[in-house]
Specification:
Number of helices: 2
Mean pLDDT: 85
Radius of gyration: 19 Å
Distance between the termini: 11 Å
Strand content: under 5%
């Protein structure tokens, strides 16, 4: 019983770390878009740079979410093995 409790405790800790990581990743994207908005208001943003910013944010979010899904899959497998 203690072994299960220990394993479950480790899984919960992993979930907390994954959640914190996901929040940080979203915050990075939000900061990038806020910076884009400031530059856009100042009219110093060319359409090419705007496209690069959007592509960067989309790529980052896609990669971050893919990584989160992979971590979730590992956690689900660990839970199923209990």
């Amino acid at each position: 019983m203690k072994a299960y409790q220990f394993d479950l405790s480790n899984i919960v800790d992993d979930l907390k770390l994954m959640t914190d990581s996901t929040i940080r990743d979203v915050d990075k994207s939000t900061r990038t878009l806020k910076l884009r908005k400031k530059v856009l208001v100042g009219k110093h943003l060319s359409p090419e740079k705007d496209l690069k910013i959007w592509n960067q944010v989309i790529k980052r979010q896609t990669n971050d979410l893919t990584e989160s899904i992979e971590k979730c899959d590992k956690i689900i497998k660990a839970l199923e093995s209990l």
